[in-house]
Amino acid sequence: MGLAKYMALSGLKSRSLWFWGFAWMLMWILFGAFLFSKDFPKIPQPYLNEAVRFYTADWVAFIAVYEPAGVLVGLLYTLIYQTGGIAYLRRYGRLTPGKLIYSYYLAMIVPSLALSSLLIALTVSLFYIGFRYQGFDVAPSSVLPRDPTLGLAEVLGISVLAFLFMQSLLFLEAVIALNISPKHVGKMAFMPMMLTFVSYYAYLFLDMPGWGILANPFAAIQGAIVAAYSGVGHLPSRLSIDESGRWMDSAVPLHYDVIVVAVWIALLTALSIPLILRIKYKPAEELREL
Description:
The structure is a single chain. The chain is mainly alpha-helical. It has one domain. The longest helix is centred in the middle third of the chain and has 37 residues. 43% of the residues are buried.
């Protein structure tokens, strides 16, 4: 627990956490609420409220996956700078791969979920204000999940999976960097953010087959959040809505998607274990090498 507390406090002091995890995401929320909503199609009621809900769900899905990728960049650098301590404690102390993974996963899950909940609340509030500002006569319930209580609980539960997936991916990147050279961490740190961005826009505009969604964990998490938020039991084949304000269901049930993401988390974690055993001291000065 002491190692997890130290990692959490170190991560919260990181300026990159607050920039990429909060300020950067708030900028995108404002874009979605006030800039991109200007081009929203003029859909008659009662379809307008449903279309606004789908649109809000798309942005919540983007935030829930993109935000932990930014938050965990700071923790990744914390791990890199701890290379000497990790190697020493593993060899001469009682630090095991399981304890290191447990401490790392626990370190940021609570503060990250609190930050994610804040961003989701800001998304709902600002999107309602944005649509009213653009002249759309929408009800406050149109920016909330179809079932506000169950929907928000499911979204937060899937957000936990999103954090665990991003943590397992970035942890694997960290131990790979510690086994090769820390100078590669600058390139590796932002790979999940780029993959999230590319996956989101591919899923937004392309009709994805069921196997294509499940094969891409970034798209799988985004689709699961949209399905939970909109109250539909199946993942959408495409995130963007059509001119009638609807999107098509795919053949992938929500629970299949959750199982697949959990398998991805377990696989990435398992791949990290043998690499932890090979970590040796790397001077932090290598981070400054070109």
